Each structure stands twice: as structure tokens, then as C-alpha cells.
């Protein structure tokens, strides 16, 4: 039984509830975690408060969360008339989300820790509190909750129970993450073609089908069938046992090329249909290195900015998390500071610039300057309070964003703006962020089925045979 205890357990006796001891990193990761433990009680050691105090200064996300956690605790404590020693009921402050109690450490605890554990260290003092509570309440489960793996290992080595914080995870298993595509079974038309309507409109064929599978379909989900009567379509309407499928524009054919780029596989074709559709405001593209996420997105963006004039400019941003050692402060303007992080943009522009025809060296240089004038590189740090109108906003390396940062960015979109999030959830560099709790996973899961959003997981690498083999064997 995890922290997501079933509602039925509320009716059980009070002795069945657990006592969760919170490590500082849980509060700094999710300041609302105090209200996420349902009917169970929480215990906050004095060392946790000390560490919150030590981390509250600054403008970083961690400092902001530390301040918010402290404010939440202050509201809970000041709004209660109960004796802090007996615990403070969370029912009212959490507006019914939690029915347990919050206990703050009100006494000095002296526990003999093993000699190898220095008591000056904050983590070890928290472990001492957990040991004391486990001895004091032998019949009650006392569990340490921490995002720090080593802290959990140390707790278990001392015979204490420890858990990760689960409530920030959108999915326990990322294999269950929505892929945006579905292969239709071979007998699909036999079971769904009865009373089917079909019509043509604007160069596309539409099918209104009824049958058992249609209840599982989501709006803007792509369906395909290989073989003799191959089909690639997407779901435009879904209601009960009825769904409307629309055939796609074939971007793998050169006559439909986007800035000289054609789709090299089925998923890339699906992605270009999302990127080029004006009714889709939010697109998420997942895929490992070399699947073409950035190239397809830039090609679609440039076509719609410079040719069809649907958007006024491309804005590109990404999280600046270094993979190796940080190279220190960078000189110049915001755009110049971001330039080293935007190597992927430059590489892809070189490819796209090579597809613009026989303009010669001068023609290519002029095209490069024109393209560069329409692409703005922005830092995430200055996004709050901004509104982008008629822009093509690309968020690269979105797997390194927390759900809160993702919300901050997506809510920047004003009228006529399209937001595209790119990322690979197998390459997360942000500490304490996992595949299940990444902002990109969060966005994919929450936006699925919304009529103005679409998602594709790109499967096949198209970079080179070397890159594909390296991705498999290394």
C-alpha cells in the first residue's frame, strides 16, 4: 500500500493509518505534499525545518518551493487552535484532501545512532527521529518519505521503513504512456463497416464507423493498417461507439515536402500532420536521439512562418542543464548566452538550408540570414508574465522540466500561438526528476484526447546507421 491509499481505508480504525516522516527534499520538490497523504499522519522533524530555512534564499525553483512549503506550514499552524503536541488536523487547511494530522517535532530526541553515522549531518538527525518514532509506536507503521535514494538505503540498513514520494508521478510505468498511435486489427473493417458512412472533402476521405473498438479511441489519435489495403488516418470525432476517421496528407511524397523535408517513416508522417494542422495548438513529440523531432518541427515552423505566414516568428527555448561539468558564466546578451545550448538548432538549420535549392553560396547565405531573423532564442528564466501572440513556440529538451515549469511555459501561449514540446524521457538530467514525474510525461498524459492537441512517440531513428546501432548496443 503506497501513499495513494484507497478511499476505502478511511473507514478502517485509526491504528491502520501510517505515520509518514517527511524528508526536506519532498517538501522542496512538491510544496503541496503535506496534503497528499490522505488519511495518514505526517511528522516533520526540526531538521527538515532547518534545511528548509537554509534553502529558502534565491530565485531558483528549489528556493521558491522551500518558501512555499514554509508558508503552507505556517498557515496550518496559525489557523489551528489545537495543541501542536497532539497534532494539527489537516482536514480544514487541505479543503478535504487530507484527513490525517500534522505533527511537528516539539521535543529534543536523543537516540543512539551507530558510531559510523555522524550526528552533525542533517540526514542522520532525521533518521534518528524515525528510529525514535519507530520505538515509540511499535504497533504503527512509521515510514520515512524521501526523494534521496541514499537516504532510503541508509534507513533500510538501520531496519527502518522508507519510500520514495509517489504522488508526483503521473505514471508508475512509462511503458503505459500514451503513444498517439494505434494499429487497427486485421478484422477491423469486418467488425466496424456495418452502416459505415464515407465521403470526400478537401482531398481527404472521411469514414464514420461504429463498433467495439471505437470506445477506446481518443480524438487526434492516429490509426493505421498495413498490408494490401494500407490505411493511415486519425480520429477527428469520437462519441460512444461512433468515431470519424480522416485520411492523412502524405508528407512522405515529395510533392508534399515541407521546406524540402519529407517523412521517412509512418510516425514522422503522423508528426508532420500534427505540426502542419492549424487546428492543433499543442503538440508533443517523444523519441530517442535521431528520430527527427527537431528537424521536422523546424521545417514545419519555417514553412508556416516564411511561406504561409500563419505565425510571425519561431521562438525556441530549452532547459539549460549541463550534461558534464558546467563551463561557467557566458558573456553577451540573452541570445548569445543561449547560443551554446542551441547546437541542435544550428545543426538542423544547416540541413534545412541545404534543401532550399540552387541559390549558390550567396543565395544560401541570404536564406540563412532570413531564417535567423525569424528565429528567436529565449531563456526559460525570463518567461513568467510573458504572452506570445501568433508565435510558433518550440520547447526543446522538455523532459528536464518539472510539471510546474511545464505549466508556466504552456500558459504563455496567446491567441494564434502553437506550442511544440520535444524530448526524450530516457535522457533526464534534472536531479530528482524521473521518467514518471517529468513535465513532458505530465503534459502527454493530461492533454491526450483534447481536440486541439496531439502526441506522437517517434520510434525509428533516421540519423545514421552508426547512431541507430549505438542507441541499441550502448
From TrEMBL:
The keyword S-adenosyl-L-methionine does not apply. The keyword ATP-binding applies. One of its GO terms (molecular function) is ATP binding. InterPro entries: P-loop_NTPase, PhoH, PhoH2-like, PIN-like_dom_sf, PIN_dom. Residues 18-153 form the PIN domain. It holds the Pfam family PhoH. GO terms for cellular component: cytosol. Keywords: ATP-binding, Nucleotide-binding. In the N-terminal section; belongs to the PINc/VapC protein family. This is PhoH family protein.
